[in-house]
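queue> pop job 88
queue> type: inverse folding (structure -> sequence)
queue> payload:
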């Protein structure tokens, strides 16, 4: 049964017009996700404001078709909508909470995560790209090395501009004007020193700048099939596809399990495996959540820290 309340939201509005500051308080990606979630709820025949019974009906209808994490996110969008309107929040009712717990218990499954890129696999990718020198391969080599050693989020990497890079004697400093954990725009810095020649992200970026003959605008730009360098940045979806294509072309096993996030995750797990401290990893990767870093660090040290090692000594 779908409950009918007088709607004060349509499929195209998450918040009422008139408050740029309200919009600015939430990141664009989060706002777009909430907008899509609200639209889905409305497209199923429900109205806003809504009731616990209506949400329970919605959850039951969606339970067999969507991951519980998706439904939890949609509940968050509904909760934010009701809070913004200063109306009673039905998402916290016992009926909704128990329904969601039941769905999670019956339909929950492990979160699929991108495979962490190991250093040896990064070396294999770089060797593959060096086999056939081209403008695209020079760009992709810089993209991989800067992305890995900078521990960049996908959105940060594809939007990097030359104006954000300062080359200094010890390496380079990249200034991020806004990021997932810096929504107020105070700015964060990523410091990358020179490395060994084969893996050096600083030299790779300098090589790309020399090949592209560009000193301003987006760093990682689109290249046409004819090899012409454009002015637009590569898109985030393209970067995901490119990562899988490169992994397959270079002969990495399980190439379909890689994504652009493999670089950021790989930096953390490989740094931990080779002895970097958790605070150093968290600081360089600009993680605000210690929980996320702990997960990556434990993955990097899972064999070295295994209790089984003690038994092998006797």
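queue> result:
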């Amino acid at each position: 049964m779908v409950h009918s309340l007088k709607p004060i939201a349509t499929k195209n509005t998450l918040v009422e017009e008139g408050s740029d500051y309200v919009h600015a308080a939430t990141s664009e990606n989060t706002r777009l996700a909430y907008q899509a979630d609200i639209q889905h709820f409305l497209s199923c025949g429900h109205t806003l404001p809504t009731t616990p019974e209506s949400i329970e009906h919605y959850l039951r209808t969606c339970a067999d078709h969507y991951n519980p994490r998706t439904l939890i996110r949609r509940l968050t969008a509904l909760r934010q909508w009701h809070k913004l309107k200063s109306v009673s929040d039905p998402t916290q009712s016992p009926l909704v909470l128990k329904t969601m717990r039941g769905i999670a218990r019956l339909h929950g499954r492990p979160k699929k995560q991108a495979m962490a890129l190991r250093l040896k696999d990064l070396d294999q990718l770089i060797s593959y790209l060096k086999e056939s020198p081209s403008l695209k391969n020079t760009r992709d080599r810089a993209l991989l090395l800067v992305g890995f050693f900078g521990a960049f989020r996908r959105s940060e990497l594809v939007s990097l501009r030359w104006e954000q890079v300062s080359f200094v004697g010890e390496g380079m400093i990249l200034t991020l004007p806004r990021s997932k954990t810096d929504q107020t725009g105070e700015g964060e810095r990523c410091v990358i020193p020179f490395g060994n020649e084969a893996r050096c992200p600083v030299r790779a970026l300098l090589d790309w700048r020399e090949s592209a003959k560009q000193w301003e605008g987006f760093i990682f730009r689109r290249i046409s099939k004819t090899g012409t360098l454009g002015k637009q940045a590569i898109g985030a979806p393209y970067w995901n596809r490119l990562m899988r294509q490169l992994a397959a072309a270079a002969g990495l096993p399980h190439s379909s399990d890689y994504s652009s996030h493999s670089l950021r995750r790989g930096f953390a797990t490989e740094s931990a495996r080779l002895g970097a401290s958790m605070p150093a990893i968290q600081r360089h990767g600009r993680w605000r959540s210690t929980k996320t870093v702990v997960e990556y660090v434990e993955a990097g040290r899972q064999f070295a820290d295994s209790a089984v090692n003690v038994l092998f000594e006797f």
